[in-house]
Amino acid sequence: MPFAAILLTKNDDGSTAARLTQIDATQLPGAGDVTVRIDYSSLNYKDGLAITGRAPVVRNWPMVPGIDGAGEVIASSHPDWQAGDAFILNGWGVGESHMGCLAQQARLKGDWLVRRPVGMSARTAMAIGTAGYTAMLSALALQAQGVAPDAGEVLVTGASGGVGSIAVAILSGWGYRVVASTGKLDQADYLHGLGASEVIDRAALSAPGKPIQKERWAAVVDSVGSHTLVNALAQTRYGGTVTACGLAQGMDFPASVAPFILRGVRLIGIDSVMAPHATRVAAWQRLASDLDMQKLARITQEISLAEAIAAAPDILAGKVRGRLVVDCNR
Ligand code: NDP
């Protein structure tokens, strides 16, 4: 039976064409031991890169984009998964080198799947999505480094984006005093509503700055990279911790070693794509137990598969607030 999917193909000039079409199971890759129905996917920054072709994240053609998905198993030859099981998929190269989840079906590896926490719907799982799961990995990394809620202010950059919005919600929910850095100052009420104590203009962080600056942050969750990450490090207090997961401003890192060797600042890299299974399960359990669902509802907008194509340039332009959850059945 054919099903709906976004399909990416390469034009003769090397650019990417994206269209909503019907494909069938024979077009899904052989590598995979679980066939799934995808009820919801989401639009992450990386999906924006894949759909627009703005960066070479797609490594096999044609490709179905979609780095995350949630739904139910249709058929499985993997010992841990049976028809009817509820799953979440994040990363592992899905939507990059392996056909992804912006479709009504996918064939995936059982080893990649995480059991959806009891009581969490597919829609909620994808409202959180890879961005929210990465926000939780970042927040757990701060905890693992011993950053306590009374340590001082925690800066969240790219605060109105997917990772940023959910990081603000998680950390404020855990009792941290969160300062949200954003380019969308008109979204200050939204960020205060998620739990930010203060909202600052990202322009204060995004230009080249001195290698060591006045100490302010006990910790930082950064999804922006480039000068923003460098300035955040330069303003981090003695012994503080900074997590880095993203590159919304840039992939460059024009830094000095001063914060590390003069203030003992720790920089922790966060990767969601190849994270071990146990790390994923722990993060999803904490999302299920700790994330305020009323805040998540404010963070989320729902779109259709076709609308995901149109929204791809917007997410790269930083125009999207919060998370875009994709209903794969419309
Ligand atoms: P979003 O587009 O939802 O959020 C990014 C936010 O960054 C924007 O909303 C904007 O927030 C800010 N921003 C955008 N452009 C700029 C700019 N030029 N300079 C400074 N700030 C900017 O993306 P996601 O939250 O989904 O992802 C954020 C980043 O994290 C991406 O680079 C993504 O690839 C990465 N990521 C990495 C993962 C990993 O495993 N390491 C997993 C998930 C995401 P505001 O307007 O509030 O400033």
Percentage beta strand: 25-35%
- SS class: alpha/beta
Secondary-structure element pattern, one letter each: EEEHEEEEHEHEHEHEHEHEHHEHE
Question: Which small-molecule ligands are present, each listed once?
Answer: NADPH dihydro-nicotinamide-adenine-dinucleotide phosphate
What is the CATH class name of the largest domain?
Alpha Beta
Number of helices: 10
Domain module tally: 2
Low-confidence stretches: none
Rg from alpha-carbon coordinates: 20 Å
Overall residue-averaged pLDDT value? 97
Q: Return the CATH topology of the largest domain.
A: Quinone Oxidoreductase, Chain A, domain 1
What is the first-to-last residue Cα distance? 17 Å
The CATH architecture designation of the largest domain is: Alpha-Beta Complex
The biggest sheet, with number of strands, parallel, antiparallel or mixed sense and barrel status, is: 7 strands, mixed
Q: What's the count of strands?
A: 15
CATH superfamily of the largest domain: Medium-chain alcohol dehydrogenases, catalytic domain
Morphology? globular
